[in-house]
Protein backbone atom coordinates (compact mmCIF):
# COMPACT_ATOMS: atom_id res chain seq x y z
CA UNK A 1 0.00 0.00 0.00
CA UNK A 2 1.43 3.35 -1.04
CA UNK A 3 0.18 5.95 1.46
CA UNK A 4 2.26 8.68 -0.16
CA UNK A 5 0.33 8.87 -3.44
CA UNK A 6 -0.96 12.37 -4.04
CA UNK A 7 -3.19 11.69 -7.03
CA UNK A 8 -5.78 9.38 -5.48
CA UNK A 9 -8.15 12.24 -4.62
CA UNK A 10 -7.52 14.43 -7.66
CA UNK A 11 -10.68 13.38 -9.51
CA UNK A 12 -12.85 14.61 -6.63
CA UNK A 13 -11.18 18.02 -6.41
CA UNK A 14 -11.13 19.22 -10.02
CA UNK A 15 -13.65 21.98 -9.26
CA UNK A 16 -11.38 23.55 -6.61
CA UNK A 17 -9.17 26.54 -7.23
CA UNK A 18 -5.40 26.11 -7.02
CA UNK A 19 -5.41 27.79 -3.59
CA UNK A 20 -8.09 25.40 -2.32
CA UNK A 21 -6.18 22.39 -3.65
CA UNK A 22 -2.95 23.69 -2.09
CA UNK A 23 -4.65 24.19 1.26
CA UNK A 24 -6.15 20.69 1.17
CA UNK A 25 -2.75 19.24 0.30
CA UNK A 26 -1.03 21.02 3.18
CA UNK A 27 -3.83 19.95 5.56
CA UNK A 28 -3.28 16.36 4.40
CA UNK A 29 0.47 16.62 5.02
CA UNK A 30 -0.15 17.97 8.52
CA UNK A 31 -2.49 15.09 9.41
CA UNK A 32 -0.09 12.60 7.87
CA UNK A 33 2.85 14.02 9.82
CA UNK A 34 0.88 13.88 13.08
CA UNK A 35 0.25 10.18 12.48
CA UNK A 36 3.95 9.60 11.86
CA UNK A 37 4.98 11.60 14.94
CA UNK A 38 2.57 9.59 17.10
CA UNK A 39 4.08 6.39 15.74
CA UNK A 40 7.63 7.66 16.43
CA UNK A 41 6.66 8.39 20.05
CA UNK A 42 5.09 4.95 20.48
CA UNK A 43 8.10 3.20 18.99
CA UNK A 44 10.48 5.30 21.05
CA UNK A 45 8.74 3.99 24.17
CA UNK A 46 9.04 0.43 22.84
CA UNK A 47 12.71 0.97 22.11
CA UNK A 48 13.29 2.27 25.66
CA UNK A 49 11.48 -0.80 27.03
CA UNK A 50 13.95 -2.94 25.11
CA UNK A 51 17.00 -1.05 26.36
CA UNK A 52 17.57 0.80 23.08
CA UNK A 53 17.84 4.21 24.67
CA UNK A 54 19.93 5.91 21.98
CA UNK A 55 17.58 4.76 19.22
CA UNK A 56 14.60 5.82 21.36
CA UNK A 57 16.08 9.28 21.83
CA UNK A 58 16.60 9.66 18.09
CA UNK A 59 13.02 8.62 17.37
CA UNK A 60 11.77 11.11 19.94
CA UNK A 61 13.88 13.77 18.23
CA UNK A 62 12.36 12.81 14.87
CA UNK A 63 8.90 13.25 16.39
CA UNK A 64 9.87 16.73 17.60
CA UNK A 65 11.28 17.63 14.17
CA UNK A 66 8.02 16.47 12.61
CA UNK A 67 6.12 18.78 14.96
CA UNK A 68 8.33 21.69 13.86
CA UNK A 69 7.72 20.79 10.22
CA UNK A 70 3.99 20.97 10.93
CA UNK A 71 4.41 24.46 12.39
CA UNK A 72 5.93 25.57 9.08
CA UNK A 73 3.16 23.84 7.13
CA UNK A 74 0.52 25.51 9.31
CA UNK A 75 2.14 28.89 8.68
CA UNK A 76 2.23 28.21 4.94
CA UNK A 77 -1.46 27.26 5.01
CA UNK A 78 -2.20 30.53 6.73
CA UNK A 79 -0.83 32.38 3.71
CA UNK A 80 -3.14 30.61 1.26
CA UNK A 81 -6.46 32.39 0.87
CA UNK A 82 -9.37 30.00 0.57
CA UNK A 83 -12.65 31.29 -0.79
CA UNK A 84 -14.93 30.29 2.10
CA UNK A 85 -12.58 31.85 4.67
CA UNK A 86 -12.76 35.32 3.20
CA UNK A 87 -15.32 37.85 4.33
CA UNK A 88 -16.65 40.29 1.76
CA UNK A 89 -15.70 43.91 2.51
CA UNK A 90 -18.35 45.47 4.72
CA UNK A 91 -19.94 42.11 5.54
CA UNK A 92 -18.40 41.73 8.98
CA UNK A 93 -21.03 41.23 11.65
CA UNK A 94 -23.92 40.84 9.21
CA UNK A 95 -26.15 37.76 9.41
CA UNK A 96 -25.63 35.14 6.72
CA UNK A 97 -27.52 35.79 3.51
CA UNK A 98 -27.46 39.55 3.90
Written overview of the protein:
- There is one protein chain.
- With 98 residues, the chain is an all-alpha fold.
- The protein has a domain at 17-79.
- Helices cover 59% and strands 0% of the residues.
- The chain has two helices and no strands.
- Helix 1 runs antiparallel to helix 2.
- It is elongated and about 50 Å long.
- Residues 85-98 have low confidence and may be disordered.
Q: Name the shape in a single word.
A: elongated
Number of helices: 2
Number of strands: 0
The largest β sheet comes out as: none
Q: What's the helix and strand layout?
A:
Layout: H1 18-49, H2 53-78
Helix pairs in contact: 1-2
Question: Characteristics of this structure?
Answer:
mainly alpha, 59% helix, 98 residues, disordered C terminus
Summarize the structure.
The protein is mainly alpha-helical and 98 residues long. It has a domain at 17-79.
Amino acid sequence: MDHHRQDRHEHHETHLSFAEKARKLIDHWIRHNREHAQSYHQWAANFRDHHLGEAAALLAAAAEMTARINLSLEQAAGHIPVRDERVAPGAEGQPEGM
